């Protein structure tokens, strides 16, 4: 069994975003307990840096989940503030709607740190879950009262177009993902190890651009993209990284057929759910932060593609997805007088891309392998992502409908 040290996290002051510091980890398994807190809470209106009308709900992570586990808040913009006073058994908070779709979440909240996300909530019941590495736990309930929220400042039409454009992007990326996975599966079933290895990194690109969307659908993301240390029962481990281990460690396609079939079935299921996906502009913005957190939590560290070392291709894909989310929201930000914020984000985007371009290679993957990165390179990338994530974390609060 491999042992994994927990990566140290960097807190962005004022943004609530958590980013991993640079540390290369091996894979491992972690266990966590499960219980339900009996504490309830009711939110009061609170000033928010992102939006003055947003109410705040504050939760502390505990060994058994959240405190409080139940809460009540008026319909409209709500800021979820998550703090971790010191537990190592819970590091994630997520909010699900009545259909089980994850509307907002923050992961990798290390002891002593915090995070937040902002959404506009309609009246009704929502499920709150505080977990650790996909562990199953009993959830609490967020009760949203009152009437449907009125629209905020700016044009609703502009926000509607942003969401429509982003949904179209997700659809295109998902369609291409299914096409690429089909070719990848064909290579695996043909026993062509060399071709399957060559296709592995490029096939993942179209998943990594839209990963927060896949994560919305409960256990679909773990089935497609879980790493070895993300599953308590190794026998249930499936998806890209299960195949990656066989391909790059055992240097064979033997034993991959059942995982290949499951992967293709899962990405087709993802594709089928996209047309009915309901999104709001703040969710698009929150997804951009989730993608940047993916870069810092596992791509920069080399933890994600630990067998193939194709992390930089994933890095670019996560970054592209975050940039797309920002780009579709840019007109709404400009309309709401956020030109300086837009310019700051664009400057930081250019810096990150310039850094990535140094590692482009004329290969099927398009990038150097992770082993070419030096500690100084990893520190530089971490700093660049931190500099981008800080202003990007303000966007959700600026585009509340």
Describe the 3D structure:
The chain is of the alpha/beta class and 401 residues long. The protein has two domains: 31-145, Sandwich (Immunoglobulin-like); 156-398, Up-down Bundle (A middle domain of Talin 1), CATH 1.20.1420.20. It is 43% helix and 16% strand. The protein is built from eleven helices and twelve strands. It has helices spanning 156-189, 193-208, 211-215, 220-225, 240-249, 257-273, 281-299, 311-335, 339-357, 375-392, 395-398, and strands at residues 9-11, 18-20, 40-42, 55-62, 65-67, 70-74, 76-83, 92-96, 102-106, 114-121, 124-131, 140-145. It has a six-stranded mixed β-sheet. Strands 5-4-7-10 form a four-stranded mixed β-sheet. It is globular, with a radius of gyration of 20 Å. The relative contact order is 0.14.
List its traits:
single chain; 401 residues; alpha/beta; Immunoglobulin-like; A middle domain of Talin 1; 2 domains; 6-stranded mixed beta sheet; 11 helices; 12 strands; 43% helix
Outline the secondary-structure elements.
Blueprint lengths: L8 E3 L6 E3 L19 E3 L12 E8 L2 E3 L2 E5 L1 E8 L8 E5 L5 E5 L7 E8 L2 E8 L8 E6 L10 H34 L3 H16 L2 H5 L4 H6 L14 H10 L7 H17 L7 H19 L11 H25 L3 H19 L17 H18 L2 H4 L3
Parallel strand pairs: 3-6, 4-7, 6-12
Antiparallel strand pairs: 1-2, 4-5, 7-10, 8-9, 8-11, 11-12
CATH architecture of the largest domain: Up-down Bundle
Portion of residues within helices: 40-55%
Uncertain ranges:
1-52
The total tally of domains equals 2
Short description:
This protein is an alpha/beta fold. Helices cover 43% and strands 16% of the residues. The chain has two domains: 31-145, Cupredoxins -  blue copper proteins (Immunoglobulin-like, Sandwich), CATH 2.60.40; 156-398, A middle domain of Talin 1 (Up-down Bundle).
């Amino acid at each position: 069994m491999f042992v994994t040290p927990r990566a140290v996290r960097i807190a962005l002051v004022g943004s609530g975003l958590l980013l991993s510091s640079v540390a290369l980890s091996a894979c491992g398994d972690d266990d966590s307990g499960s219980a339900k807190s009996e504490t309830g809470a009711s939110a009061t209106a609170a000033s928010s840096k992102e939006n003055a009308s947003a109410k705040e709900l504050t939760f502390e992570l505990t060994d058994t989940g959240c405190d409080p586990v139940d809460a009540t808040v008026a319909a409209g913009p709500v800021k979820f503030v998550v703090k971790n006073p010191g537990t190592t058994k819970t590091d994630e908070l997520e909010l699900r709607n009545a259909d089980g779709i994850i509307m907002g979440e923050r992961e990798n909240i290390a002891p002593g740190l915090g995070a937040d996300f902002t959404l506009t909530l309609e009246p009704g019941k929502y499920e709150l879950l505080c977990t650790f590495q996909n562990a199953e736990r009993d959830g609490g309930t967020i009760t949203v009262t009152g009437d449907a929220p009125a629209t905020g400042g700016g044009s609703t039409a502009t926000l509607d177009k942003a969401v429509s454009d982003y949904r179209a992007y997700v659809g295109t990326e998902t369609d291409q993902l299914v096409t690429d996975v089909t070719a990848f599966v064909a290579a695996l079933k043909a026993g062509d190890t060399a071709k399957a290895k060559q296709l592995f990194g490029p096939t993942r690109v179209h998943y990594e651009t839209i990963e927060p969307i896949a994560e919305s659908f409960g256990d679909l993301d773990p089935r497609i993209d879980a790493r070895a240390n993300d599953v308590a029962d190794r026998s249930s481990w499936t998806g890209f990284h299960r195949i990656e281990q066989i391909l790059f460690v055992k240097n064979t396609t033997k034993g991959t057929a059942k995982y290949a079939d499951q992967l293709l079935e899962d990405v087709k299921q993802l594709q089928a759910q996209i047309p009915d996906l309901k999104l709001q502009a703040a969710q698009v913005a929150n997804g951009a932060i989730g993608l940047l957190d993916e870069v810092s939590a596992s791509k920069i560290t080399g933890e994600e593609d630990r067998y193939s070392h194709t992390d930089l291709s994933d890095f670019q894909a996560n970054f592209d997805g975050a940039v797309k989310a920002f780009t579709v929201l840019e007109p709404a930000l400009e309309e709401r007088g956020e030109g300086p914020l837009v310019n700051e984000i664009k400057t930081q985007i250019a810096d990150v891309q310039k850094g990535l371009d140094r590692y482009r290679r004329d290969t099927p993957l398009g990038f150097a392998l992770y082993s070419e990165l030096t500690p100084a390179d990893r520190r530089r990338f971490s700093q660049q992502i931190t500099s981008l994530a800080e202003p990007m974390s303000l966007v959700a609060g600026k585009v509340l409908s």
